[in-house]
Design goal:
The complex is a heterodimer of chains A (about 400) and B (about 400). With about 400 residues, chain A is an alpha+beta fold. Chain A contains 10 helices and 19 strands. In chain A, strands 12-15-16-11-17-18-19 form a 7-stranded mixed beta sheet. The model of chain A has no long low-confidence stretch (mean pLDDT about 90). Chain B has 3 domains: about 140 residues, no CATH class; about 220 residues, no CATH class; about 30 residues. In chain B, strand 3 and strand 4 form a beta hairpin. About 25% of the residues of chain B have low confidence. The chains are: A alpha+beta (about 400), B alpha/beta (about 400). The complex binds guanosine-5'-triphosphate and magnesium ion (MG).
């Protein structure tokens, strides 16, 4: 008989409640046990088991064996890995249209390939729960129609990306987590990511019963996606708003991304009960997106060859010295064009790290001015798409990626 | 007073935020309702993935916010591209007071309201409520169904499901994408006026939310994951095919001829009346809902087919409100029926969840015996006390 070792405390990736594994609920399997007080009539009943069969599966009130588990608070389903592996929640944050969804899709797609970091194991904790990432990936990175232009949709504030549940008298809405088992050098973690809409991070957007960004209260690392092409000074340097918009940059307005970073830092401190002067409990990684657009104006121009990684293995995470050179180049670029963002990030975390990347590798285009931007999946050639995530993980769990951790 | 909210991706919303935001709102919108309406503003642009049958979502829903149910009529549709050059969508919601519900029904009202925003509007807070259509839609043959290439009788079959199972989710599976609002108008036209507003619906359902009521869902036969959705316990499914006749039931014939679809009288099992104590539905709301629907179902043919008078509508409003507050709860009649029907798996579940049973015909003897025993004991106690007092003196 096999044995399972459980973590001492489970953090639910849906509602972020913490509870001992003994409190985990099971999902009834008997067809008649439909309806749950927290999830509604169309969900199977959740129960705290008191009987188990010889194989350790719970027995539901009508005698069927139940093996699917759920959170004791929100009753949403948990993959077994949530009880067995330590969790690494990484918060991906950024302004609307900064490139978060493209990064998530490009990173998960390339991490699966095994070509990103030597010896890395990266698998879906439960493919049925990770449908969102799989869909994002299939629209651009593993498309069945590689010659038909496509693009990842704007992340909506409602709909399939969210789960609702009822606790007490209130309805709660939370983003659907995407869960992966990440293993390397004998260590395994449950990586948990969310595809938030940029609007969620705008100052004043934190609604009490829509805890869409509450992962900031438990995450182990913060990837702040900065889109330099949304800054007016960069836009001017690149030839004006229209020119930048035509290749996928510029967003919708001149976005104060430093204010979003301050808002996020405030939420982190508030959710964790930290004082306004306490250092943030994790490293900040500034992920500079769309480097294919602005990478030509850095000194030296990093878009030219990404430290020799542009061609061939562009999805691989480069060695530490290449990353450090890129970090220095980007620091100089930010100091010149977006000094207040760099100053804010430095004040929050003096040891912050900066990683440039391009989720698409090539600019999208549109048939006519003012219409939808799209790119042929065949032309998508991401450059360092997983580097921000790997750097963030190396800071949170140095044992996984010792060669990418600083100090 | 009615309210309207328009939600879409704008450069600067009502509160200065960019991206998806409230673009238009009537001043004085009740607290919490703006975010409640945002929950039903989503749109999936992927036509292969979308479950709904229509490109536009036309919906009548009861959205419960902070314990209060609101009648919401919505139109959610694609809206070109936004400033980031990605597909945009626009959701326009009308929040109605009970007295503003037109006799013609919610689908008719959606069809008649001519002021839905279809392109990105000027961002503004409106001080006057939207001008809502009023009027009635007389019962008539289901011409929109015939025009769409279906037997008109199907509208009657759908109406029958709604009338007979007011609390069950009803899926209408259509062979391909089409303009579904005229089909809903036809279905509701076959129902008595006082039933039309009991029917919540969506022509492009996206997600099921615990605080949002949406009973009638129009879906595509090709939709991914459809089988799992239709397997939802208690759900009624009407599969409509182009070359298939809807049969010769009274309801199908009523839809072909333009007559009201009446509830099928069903035997009511009065032996056991379970009172389900579920954390989902507040018991008070559950009882009101149960009473309202049970009464109207039992009344059967006595339900007036003529337009309901204003005075009659208040109890009808209450029952709609109560039904929504009870969340996805069920009616007493449904429970009683399901006890009688061994095929309905919910019957068994209700046995499991029922925590109080009132056996009406078994209640009297135990109560009477207990009363006699207690009064006997009380008299005996009083005599002993009296004797003790006398003895002490
Ligand atoms: N040239 C270029 N354009 C990109 C790249 N990544 C994203 N874009 C463009 O930026 C747009 C926004 O990217 P998304 O990933 O959807 O942005 P997001 O941060 O998820 O935005 P929200 O969902 O609104 O929060 C895309 O539609 C593309 O047009 C890139 O690597 N290169
Ligand atoms: Mg997005």
């Amino acid at each position: 008989m096999s044995t399972r070792s459980l973590v001492s405390s489970v953090t639910c990736p849906h509602c972020w409640a913490e509870f001992p594994p003994a409190q985990v609920r099971y999902v009834a399997e008997h067809a008649a046990l439909m309806g749950d007080p927290v999830l509604g009539d169309s969900a199977a009943m959740r129960f705290l088991p008191s009987r188990f069969d010889a194989r350790g599966r719970a027995i539901d009130p009508f005698g069927a064996s139940a093996s699917r588990m759920a959170c004791m608070r929100c009753h949403l389903e948990l993959p077994p890995a949530a009880l067995e592996l330590p969790q690494a929640i990484v918060s991906i944050v950024g302004a609307p249209a900064s490139g978060k969804s493209v990064m998530l899709a490009a990173a998960s797609f390339s991490l699966r390939s095994g070509l990103v970091v030597d010896g890395l194991e990266f698998v879906d904790a439960d493919p049925s729960l990770n449908d969102l990432t799989l869909e994002l990936e299939s629209s651009l990175f593993r498309s069945s129609t590689p010659d038909s232009p496509a693009m990842i949709a704007k992340t909506d504030l409602a709909g399939r990306l969210y789960r609702s549940f009822r606790v007490g008298d209130a309805n709660w809405t939370a983003p659907k987590p995407q869960l992966f088992v990440v293993g390397r050098k004998g260590k395994r973690h449950l990586l948990c990511l969310y595809d938030n809409a940029g609007e969620h991070f705008l100052p004043g957007a934190d609604a009490p019963h829509e805890p869409v960004t509450r992962h900031l209260g438990v995450s182990r690392a913060l990837v702040f996606v900065v889109d330099p092409t949304q800054d007016q000074r960069v836009i001017e340097r690149l030839g004006g708003r229209e020119a930048v918009q035509a290749v996928g940059g510029a967003g919708s307005i001149d976005q104060r991304q430093d204010l979003i970073l301050i808002e996020v830092a405030n939420r982190v401190r508030r959710l964790r009960g930290l004082s306004a002067y306490d250092p943030l409990p994790f490293r900040i990684v500034l992920a500079l997106s769309k480097a294919d657009i602005w990478g030509s104006v850095t000194d030296p121009p990093i878009a030219a060859d990404f430290g020799g990684f542009r061609s061939g293995q562009s999805i691989a995470v480069p060695p530490m010295e290449v990353l450090q050179r890129a970090d220095a180049t980007c620091r100089e670029f930010l100091a010149r064009y977006m000094p207040e963002l760099l100053a804010t990030a430095r004040a929050l975390d003096p040891n912050l790290r900066i990683v440039p990347f391009s989720g698409l590798g090539n600019p999208p285009s549109s048939a006519t001015l003012g219409t939808r931007l799209a790119i042929r999946p065949r032309d998508v050639k991401p450059v360092w798409p997983a580097a921000p995530l790997v750097v963030a993980l190396s800071e949170a769990e140095p044992a996984l990626f010792p060669e990418h951790a600083v100090g | 007073m009615s309210f309207e909210v328009v939600h879409t991706s704008v450069v600067r919303g009502l509160r200065g935020e960019s991206g998806f935001a409230t673009a238009i709102m009537t001043r004085g919108l009740p607290a919490g309702l703006e975010s409640g309406l945002q929950d039903v503003s989503g749109y999936d642009h992927d036509s292969a993935r979308a479950v709904g049958v229509d490109t536009v979502e036309w919906a009548h829903r009861i959205v419960t916010v902070r314990g209060r149910p609101y009648t919401v009529l919505s139109r959610v549709a694609p809206n070109g591209v936004d400033a980031s050059r990605r597909p945009n969508r626009i959701a326009h919601h009308l929040v109605l007071e009970p007295h503003e519900r037109a006799l013609g029904g919610p689908a008719w009202m959606l069809g008649q309201f001519g002021a839905f925003e279809t392109g990105t509007p000027e961002v503004t807070e409106r001080t006057t409520p939207p001008v809502l259509p009023t009027g009635d839609l007389p019962v008539r043959a289901a011409h929109a169904w015939s025009a769409a290439g279906f037997d008109a009788g199907w509208a009657g079959v759908v109406a029958q499901s709604l009338v007979d199972h007011p609390q069950a989710v009803v899926y209408v599976v259509l062979p391909e994408a089409l303009d579904a609002l005229p089909l809903v108008i036809d279905v509701l036209a076959l129902m008595p006026n006082d039933r039309r507003w009991h029917v919540t619906f969506s022509t492009r359902p996206l997600v099921v939310l615990p605080h949002v009521r949406c009973q009638l869902r129009f879906v595509r036969a090709e939709a991914p994951g459809l089988a799992r959705m239709l397997a939802e316990p208690g759900a009624r499914v009407v599969r409509v095919e182009r070359d298939e006749d809807a049969g010769e039931s009274d309801a199908a014939n009523a839809a072909r001829r333009g007559q009201t679809v009446e509830p099928t009288s069903r035997p009511v099992n009065t032996r056991v009346n379970p009172v389900v104590q579920s954390a989902l539905g507040s018991s008070a709301a559950g009882v009101r809902e149960q009473d309202a629907f049970a009464a109207s179902t039992r009344a059967g043919a006595q339900v007036p087919a003529a337009p309901v008078a204003q005075a009659e509508r208040s109890s009808f409003d209450d029952s709609i409100g109560a039904a929504s507050q009870a969340s996805p709860g069920r009616t007493g009649t449904d429970l009683v029926d399901s006890f009688g029907s061994a095929r309905d798996p919910r019957a068994v579940q209700d046995v499991a969840r029922a925590s109080i049973y009132s056996r009406s015909n078994l209640q009297w003897p135990p109560i009477a015996i207990a009363l006699i025993l207690y009064s006997g004991l009380a008299v005996l106690g009083a005599v002993i006390l009296f004797l003790l007092a006398a003895f002490a003196r």
